[in-house]
Amino acid sequence: MDDFEPTIIAFVCNWCTYTAADLAGTSRLAYPKNVRLIRVMCTGMVDPQHVIKAFLEGADGVLVSGCHPGDCHYINGNYKARRRIKLLKEILPQFGFDEKRLRLTWIGASDGIQFAEIMRELVMQVKALGPSEARLKMVI
Amino acid sequence: MGTQNSELRIHNSQFQKGFTMNKKVGKALVVGAGISGIRSALDLAEFGYGVTLIDRDLHLGGVLSQLDYQFPTDRCGMCKMLPLTDRDASSQYCLRKGLFHENIDIRLGTELIDVDGEPGRFEVLLKEKPRWVDAERCIGCGDCVPVCPVEIPDAFNADMGTRKAIFRPVPHAIPNPYAIDFAACTRCGECEKVCPTDAIHVSDQKRQEFNILITDDELVVRDSLKEWLEDEGFTVEMAASGPEALEMLAQKTYHLLLTDIKMPGMDGVELLKHAKEKQPDLYVVMMTAYATVETAVEAMKIGALDYLMKPFDPDVLIPKVLKIYEDVEISQGQRLEVGAIVFSGGVSYYDPTGTKDPFGYDLYPDVVTSLEFERLFSGVGPTQGRLLRPSTGQPVGKVAWIQCVGSRDLQTDADFCSNICCMYAIKEARVAKEKYGNELETAIFYMDMRTFGKSYQRYRDQAETEHGVTFIKGRVHSVTADDKTGLMLLRYVNYDGALFESHWDMVVLAVGQRPAAGAEKIAETLGIELNPWGFCKTRPFSMSQTVDADDTARQGIVVSGAFSGLKDISETVIQASSASVCASRVIHASGGSLAPEIVEQAEIKDVSSELPRILIAICTCGSALTAYISPPEWQAGLKSDPAVMDIELLDQTCTAMGWDALIESVRKHAPNRVLIGACQPYIYARKLRELGEQVGLAPALIDVVDIRSPVFTASEGDESEKDMSHNKISAEIARILTMGVVRLKSVEPSPTPYLPVEQRALIVGGGIAGMTAALAIADHGFATDLIEKKADLGGNLRWLTTTIEGDDLQALYETTFQQVTKHPLIQVYAHTEVVAAYGQVGHFVTTIENRDGEVDTLEHGVAILATGGEEAVTDAYNHGADPKIVTQKELEIGLHDHTIDTARLETVVMIQCVGSREEPRNYCSRICCVTALKHALDLKTLNPEIMVYILYRDMMSYGFNETYFTQAREAGVIFIAYTKDQKPEVALGDETDAKVQVTTFESLLGQNVQIDADLLVLATGVTPDLPPALADAFGAIRDQDGFFQEAESKWRPVDAIKEGVFACGLVHSPRNVTEAIATAEAASQRALRILAAATLPAGKVVAIVRHSLCSLCELCIEACPYGARTLDIDLEKVEVNPVMCQGCGSCASVCPNSASVVEGFEMPQMFGVIDAALVN
Q1: Is the CB of B731 inside 8 Å of chain A's CB atoms?
Q2: CA B241 and chain centroid, separation
Q3: Any idea what the CATH number is for the domain that residue A74 is in?
Q4: Across the interface, do B1170 and A77 touch by the CB < 8 Å criterion?
Q5: Which of B98, B446, B533, B705 is most exposed, with the fewest beta carbons within 10 Å of its own?
Q6: Which pLDDT does position B760 carry in this prediction?
Q7: CATH topology of domain B871-1021
Q8: Shortest Cα distance from B1148 to chain A (angstroms)?
Q9: Residue A1's pLDDT is what?
């Protein structure tokens, strides 16, 4: 499994984490290409169905990342996301997915370095978990 | 909210042919693009004016670009300043990175040189500094950086760390072209050689175009001059005699002639005459030896500009030529006609280097300024955000802040408080504690902790109780290095008079504000006066209106931001809007024929019944991407989706030429959707809208995706990334484009809804704030209803007499009252209260009732709450039990109507913070300390023999008020500090005329002292008057102290969360009259941007409801943070106000039936995008 390269779907909010990713990009900070960014306006718009869909389609990990608490451009969307991710983490094992495959982080617009670090860390974590069940089943 | 719902008359007018946008006429110039300049520019742009925003720096944001953290959220939040209505007029993106608004023309590296004309019709001269790097061509690859041999301190990181002479002004701006620091550049030309897009021209083109002719009969003079001047980049030619020079002048245009006077044949003076005949614009400088100075002076009378003495000193000669060159250049600067000028000059920060008491700064690397600390703590700073000791690079375990460095210090000419340092020090300590927790010890050494802003006191208390920041009241007298440990040794005296020592890893100097460098010069250009501290002088009761040398109003030139006097961000944002409204008034009054006129919009095609036909336009970025995207099989992969009609490869769509090619290509293919693959999607916001108009496509049908970053990160990353093969990059680009295609093809091209606006304002409360707001709105031509519950207008202005500056408040009342009551567009309803209100931005319906029970209904588009506040009622310290115990208000009235006999007073004691700054009223009322100082000084003026004692916790004599604190001490007023835990005690004597006995602990004496007072004055603070029913009627929220809750204390300081509702004056927060007027002007500016046009367009991304799927569960109504959703009971429908909706999608994710969706993020689109993202 050494050469296992996980695929991670990251739902990132337009205002903070996407901006941080952009900053990481323009600052030439390397971060693993395993992470596929999907820009949403706010983490509060990430529907649990999006997360489950990503897992069912074979994502090895899913990241939801937005503005720091108290800093949401839309006042409180990130709090809504936080509640939702907590619930999802309860539900995921019932679908056969390790809840550690789902992560919620806050990465502010100026945290380009932190973005790159968290992406590296996330890839390591998901690598350690191995390929997702859904992916294995698809291979079979 | 009432149960009724306002009828949402949403127009789908974009399909109407030839729809016209109402653009306001008029133009403004905003000088300075810091936070205040941005706020002012956005205000004026949102109102519809064309704005030119200039800054001499090469980046936006001023000092804010260096600050990653701002209280109270301890994060950034600048983006919350972006327009909420008609928001697609600006980019929907991080505002720290860039600002793009259709009405704002931003010119960086540009200075204001000259102002001419009159208010409403100024002619300004702007000069852009040469950049040496063509911003249009620079793709930001950074190849030029490693080859640059120069290394200088990095100014962006407060001179910590180094940068090259070719550099990015800030790391995060978009677009972010490189620039050359010409002062540091050696002109070696290495960067020019490696630039792949030929963007760099170190040899200055413009100087090359400046032709100099040297005429001298001595070859050695000619040669040396030629060499010196050519080194400066000029084109230099030589003539050996007068006739030869004239011949050359006949052939070619020269800008400067340097001629010797004594030459055989034709002498210099004769040459001058003939040369001027040939080229009248020619500048001539005479070169002379001592003997012919008189001749040279004569020559100047007949048209020579200057003379130079032989022998030449290059250090004299070259600056002289450069000055001439610059003057010529400047005269070629750009002229603009503008209606008003907003001067947002900004501030600089006190530099302790080399001062009398630098606290070890510049001597020990571990002593840093607060700005340096901000950079050390920044993720893009010199230590990547890790707090390391500059001396050793070891982690910091203990850090101390020293307050009032360069503030409140007569020795540094700072008889003022800088206002911001207490709060930023607390913030810095808090964010540091948040990051390092118990590993870090933090302490703030202070004289008075000035937490005079709204909610600041609680922020400070939390720092102490929740974050564990230590506050030490005392004065630091020195910082030295401990020889043994290398730690910083801080010696200080506390308020008991005891001397202490402590060791710290790092010491942060909380440096104060100073006027920005060069502000004096611009002020002179603008013809405005400065105050004794070098900040802008403003008219009485205005924070924005400037004065000229005669102390009369300088109409049409307003000041914005901290340059008008020491401000933090939230005050800056408020005052910047106040400046905008003052500027806007002048533009409005002058009729504005300078206009961007009414714009005819192109017809937008209805493509809703067509199958998607997407044209993918890919920018090859100067062929950097060509290899990845050229293979036919790669393109075939993308085309396998039937929605993709064709792929066009274009070069540099970011340039004007590339963009024209793109428009051409779209015209040729006539697609009904366009996907552009390029870099930095956000720089395209305005262009996309224009493209849509040009080719008749709705903006929602055009999208840009970033395909450049994958190539960057792959080629520049670490080792593991470098092996990312060609194919992987190709695949990555294809995946990004496919995700874009999937999203775009299922966009339902619904028209942009418009909301009609009732262009009328309602203002509740007729104090100075309400009256000011009413005048500001009515002066722009909109009808305004002003509701006052009392019999008369005026509020607290009825009893106030003068300000501490001595300005007459009764005169202010009289003038404003007359203006309001005589204004044809203002309708005053006295003795009237609001009974009920319903509706939303653009259309509110309010029922009012007067004391006779007469009821009326008013329709309006915006509401401003200006219901004011009062002095808090107290029974503390026996108030009410003895006529000798009064409040500050009672004292003011008593002094005015002489019911308090000052002749009989011997001792007056004032107690500050009565019931304030502790729960339940844990806020500073801001005005009480200054009021106490005012009354203390008044009493001392009446009779210097009166003993005045002020018992205080922290003297909040913020800003320039500090000078009155100094005056009061000089006048002999005695200040005794007390603490929350050890308050003064008051006892009444047994006899009726006995003195009031005030006992308080005096820390220097270490014991209680008793003062027998003839008069005890209590400062009880301010309580707001915002009845819950009134707040509810307009959907406003009261904060825990009953004040109006702003949508965002820093970035939207006078807005309610619910759009269309604003607040100003005392109901907003405690403040003095001038500050209340500023909030009123700000609130009216915010209201005017809504009233400006008859319709308001919604954004591109808004939520809609699919009524057939909706079960009316109302979860979405609950979830909407903007109150944009309402249930229409009659129609049984959930309605979305498209202007209030900001497209956050909270509603969509709570909807159990997928009935509530956000355009562009609907479930099939999101699923499609997820699928595409997972393709390997």
Answers
A1: no
A2: 58
A3: 3.40.50
A4: no
A5: B533
A6: 97
A7: FAD/NAD(P)-binding domain (3.50.50)
A8: 6
A9: 47
Distance CA B237, CA B226 (A): 7
As a CATH number, domain B349-513 is 3.50.50.60
Q: Do B1144 and A36 touch (CB under 8 A)?
A: no
**Could you tell me which chain B residue has the CA closest to the CA of A109?**
B94
> Which residues on chain A are in Cβ contact (under 8 Å) with B1143?
41
Tokens representing B305 are: 């500009």
CB contact under 8 A, B379 and A27: no
- Whether chain B has a CB inside 8 Å of the CB on A82: the answer is no
The CATH architecture one would assign to domain B1101-1174 is 2-Layer Sandwich (3.30)
The ranges assigned to domains in chain B are 24-120+339-345+516-589, 131-190, 206-330, 349-513, 614-745, 756-868+1025-1096, 871-1021, 1101-1174
Kindly state whether B1119 is in contact with chain A, defined as any CB-CB distance less than 8 angstroms.
Answer: yes
Domain count, chain A: 1
What does the alpha-carbon distance between residue B206 and residue B210 come to, in Å, rounded to a whole number?
A: 7
Closest to B119 measured CA to CA, from B587, B556, B558: B556
Residue A3 resides in a domain: no
User: Does B1145 contact chain A (CB < 8 Å)?
Assistant: yes
- For residue range B435-462, list pLDDT tens digits in order: 999 999 999 999 999 999 989 999 999 9
Say yes or no: B683 contacts chain A, CB-CB below 8 A. Answer: no
Assigned superfamily of B206-330: Response regulator (3.40.50.2300)
Interface touch A25/B712, C-beta < 8 Å: yes
User: Could you tell me the pTM of the whole model?
Assistant: 0.90
Among B1101, B1149, B1156, B1175, pick the best mutation site for testing chain A contact (most A Cβ within 10 A).
B1149
Ordered DSSP codes for B661-728: HHHHHHHHH--SEEEEEES-GGGGHHHHHHHHHHHT--GGGEEEEE-SHHHHHHHHS-HHHHT--HHH
Calculate the CA B1095 to chain-centre distance. 28
CATH 3.40.50 fits B614-745, yes or no: yes
pLDDT digits (tens, 9 = 90+) for B1007-1054: 999 999 999 999 999 999 999 999 999 999 999 999 999 999 999 999
Q: Mutate one of B377, B1049, B1116, B1174 to test the A interface: name it (highest A CB count within 10 A).
A: B1174
The domain of A42 spans 8-139
pLDDT for the residue A104 = 97
B54-89: b (≥16 Cβ within 10 Å) or e: bbbbbbbbbbbbbbbbbbbbbbbbbbbbbbbbbbbb
Tell me which residue has tokens 């400037």. Answer: B546
% of residues, chain A, pLDDT over 90: 68
Per-residue model confidence as pLDDT tens digits over B345-399:
999 999 999 888 899 999 999 999 999 999 999 888 888 889 999 999 999 999 9
CB–CB of A25 and B709 under 8 A?
A: yes
Q: Is B635 on the interface with A (CB under 8 A)?
A: no
Is domain B756-868+1025-1096 in CATH 3.50.50.60, yes or no?
yes
B58 with B113: CB under 8 angstroms? no
CATH topology match: B349-513 vs B756-868+1025-1096: yes
Q: Which of A19, A30, A47 sits opposite B713 (nearest CB)?
A: A30
> Phi first, then psi: what are they for B742, rounded to 5°?
-60, -45
User: Which of A53, A80, A110 faces B1146 most closely, judged by CB atoms?
Assistant: A80
- Which stretches of chain B score pLDDT less than 70? 1-25, 203-205, 290-291, 330-331, 592-602, 712-724, 750-751
- Report the CATH number of the B24-120+339-345+516-589 domain: 3.50.50.60
Closest CA to B813 of B795, B789, B832, B830: B795
- B1057 vs A: CB within 8 A: yes
Nearest CA-CA distance, residue A140 and chain B, Å? 17
- ipTM score of complex: 0.96
Of A69-83, A110-124, B686-700, B883-897, least confident by mean pLDDT is B686-700
Contact: A33, B714; criterion CB under 8 Å:
yes
Count of CA atoms in the C-beta half-sphere (13 A) of B334:
13
User: Per the domain annotation, does A1 fall within a domain?
Assistant: no
Evaluate whether residue A2 is within a structural domain. Answer: no
